[in-house]
Design goal:
Blueprint lengths: L3 E3 L7 E4 L2 E4 L7 E5 L2 E5 L1 H5 L3 H10 L7 E4 L6 H13 L3 E3 L4 H10 L11 H12 L3 H10 L4 H6 L2 H14 L14 H9 L4 H13 L4 H15 L12 H5 L6 H17 L9 H13 L4 H13 L6 H4 L14 H20 L2 H4 L14 H17 L7 H8 L11 H13 L5 H8 L9 H8 L6 H35 L13 H33 L5 H6 L6
Parallel strand pairs: 3-5, 4-6
Antiparallel strand pairs: 1-7, 2-3, 4-5
Helix pairs in contact: 3-4, 4-5, 6-8, 8-10, 9-11, 10-13, 14-15, 15-17, 17-19, 19-21, 23-24, 24-25
């Protein structure tokens, strides 16, 4: 830390007695100066020779009878502590000027008119020269800027604040950021983030705006913003979930005065986040959102965060979007409406780009054609949404329309398979056993039975919670797939046999002396036989189901009528 020593006399000539500060040089005190709650009993001459303001005030208040003049200087920048140092300077007593007091001394010397008109090497020039030395150092500039808060109007008028910020900006944006000051390059980022936490929010905000305007990487700015938030908002340091919802609403909720300050801080910091996609990790955006909800941040702040999360929803993990419902009227365990808005924001950004590509990217049955990069984010979000629905489906207070609206937010073509959606539907049906058959049937229309895997179809066919009509549809489409598969195998088998009979002279022998093509043909026949058995088994199951309700007995006759040979 920079240091400037001045004066040669011992400070024994001054004595502090409670709220009084007395000069003991042997000269009679002929002026009393009141600064704040402290009274300074001094001799006029040392003050007259250094300060234009004191010279004028003493002259105006002099008494003809020679009694002590009393001056009140309650507006001196820095108060009684700064005036004490100035008094020592006027008397030539030893003192030290540091980055922690130079700003208040510079402002006070300007206020007292301690310029070159009242003595060479006066305090204005001394402090100005020392300030230039302070600006050459990162840590000293931070200290000086921090103290500007105490004398801000005067520091602003003398451009000390702006000069501190300019100095720090240049150093922060340089490639060798403050590494010459006993700090290693590897740890430089984190410790300068910590240094900025010494600043008040208004000064910190101005510095961040300055470094951004000078081209600092958005990632570094965001890292500093998050570090600053975590320092002053304890809620940012914990992972919120439904399990600790009670503690969030009670133990961790800040007091009313603290909540107001933290809310203001969070809203200001969110407004400073650079407008660049994915510049903030998704987990921090969601943590910001949860904290904003707890602190009852403005709707504009929450909307800002929801849009940012929506723009990178494909990078979010399930645990991060399980946001407990913090509303005043808690209807559901989790904040479904918030996730609905986030998904709507995601769709507003991705839907226009994919809508035109939809016809060429989707099969006739609504399934997604593999390898379409443009739909990858939407597919990831579809899987995320299905997993989220399975979690929130356990909530007995979750209404059917709200579940349906959320599930329908993602278009059908974004789901290559509907297994995840089926699982969520099954969980909901299990948690809401009071749903009537018509509601269950309508509910199950959310999924596309053609897009269930064999495993999911098998589970659905044996699921007592699934309506019978849906089970029949599942089995019907499963048999269609089996027939298609059988036809494909038979077609390949016929081609192999034809190829074998036409090219007997060039078949290659394996180690057992048998032709590879013969072995392949036998394998194909075995597989076809297995598929035919599976198909027959499914047909029998559907016939049994059809007998349970007469009105449905038509399905086996229509869909599974034997083909004429």
């Amino acid at each position: 830390m920079a240091l400037l020593k001045l004066g040669s006399k011992s400070d024994d000539i001054f004595r502090r007695d409670g709220q009084s500060w007395v000069c003991t040089t042997g000269l009679t005190s002929d002026v009393t100066i009141e600064v704040g709650e402290t009274s300074f009993f001094l001799h006029k001459f040392p003050l007259l020779s250094r300060s234009g303001l004191l010279k004028k005030l003493i002259a105006d208040s002099s008494n003809e009878d020679g009694t002590t003049s009393i001056l009140q200087l309650h507006e001196v920048p820095g108060g009684d502590k700064t005036f004490e140092i100035i008094t020592k300077f006027c008397y030539g007593v030893k003192l030290e000027i540091t980055p922690l007091n130079v700003v208040s001394l510079r402002c006070a010397s300007e206020y007292l008119q301690m310029n070159e008109n009242y003595g060479e090497g006066n305090l204005v020039d001394v402090t100005e020269t020392f300030l230039n030395e302070v600006f050459s150092s990162w840590s000293d500039s931070i200290r000086a800027l921090q103290t500007c808060e105490e004398v801000k109007p005067y520091a602003e008028e003398l451009h000390i604040v702006s000069r501190c910020i300019d100095s720090l900006t240049i150093k922060a944006c340089s490639e060798d950021i403050i590494c010459s000051e006993t700090k290693s390059q590897a740890s430089s980022d984190e410790w300068w983030y910590e240094d900025l936490c010494l600043l008040s929010l208004p000064l910190y905000k101005r510095l961040i705006i300055s470094v951004e305007s000078k081209g600092m990487k958005p990632e570094n700015i965001v890292a500093s913003l998050i570090y600053y938030l975590r320092r002053f908002i304890p809620l940012m340091n914990r992972q919120s979930s439904f399990n600790d919802k009670a503690s969030v609403s009670q133990a961790t909720t800040p007091s009313r005065s603290s909540e107001t300050n933290q809310r203001t801080l969070l809203e200001e910091i969110v407004g400073l986040i650079p407008n660049k996609k994915c510049v903030v990790p998704s987990k921090y955006l969601l943590r910001l959102l949860r904290t904003a909800m707890i602190l009852h941040a403005s709707s504009l702040c929450i909307e800002n965060l929801e849009k940012r999360i929506g723009s990178q929803l494909d990078q979010v993990e399930l645990v991060d979007i399980l946001i407990p419902n913090m509303g005043y009227s808690v209807e559901t365990l989790y904040d479904i409406d918030c996730i609905q808005r986030i998904i709507d924001n995601f769709m507003s950004m991705y839907q226009p780009a994919t809508a035109s590509a939809t016809p060429s990217c989707v099969n006739e049955d609504g399934s997604l054609i593999g390898g379409v990069d443009a739909l990858t984010p939407m597919t990831v979000v579809a899987n995320l949404l299905d997993a989220y629905l399975a979690e929130v489906a356990l909530d007995v207070n979750l209404k059917l329309p709200k579940f349906q609206a959320l599930a329908s937010s993602i278009p059908d073509y974004a789901r290559p398979l509907d297994d995840g959606l089926y699982h969520a539907i099954d969980v909901y049906l299990k948690a809401h056993p009071w749903l009537i058959d018509s509601e269950r049937e309508q509910f199950c229309r959310l999924m596309n039975c053609q897009k269930l895997s064999l495993e999911a179809s098998t589970h659905a066919a044996q699921n007592e919670r699934v309506p019978l009509r849906v089970i029949v549809q599942v089995l019907f489409f499963e048999q269609l797939r089996l027939r298609t598969s059988i036809s494909s195998w038979l077609f390949v088998s016929d081609n192999l046999e034809t190829s074998q009979s036409g090219n007997l002279g060039i078949t290659r022998s394996n180690g057992n002396g048998q032709a590879d093509t013969v072995q392949g043909g036998e394998n194909l026949r075995d597989r076809v036989s297995e598929l035919e058995k599976e198909c027959s088994s499914i047909r029998n199951e559907i016939k049994k189901l059809g007998k349970t309700k007469r009105g449905w007995s038509i399905f086996p006759r229509i869909f599974f009528r034997k083909r004429s040979s």
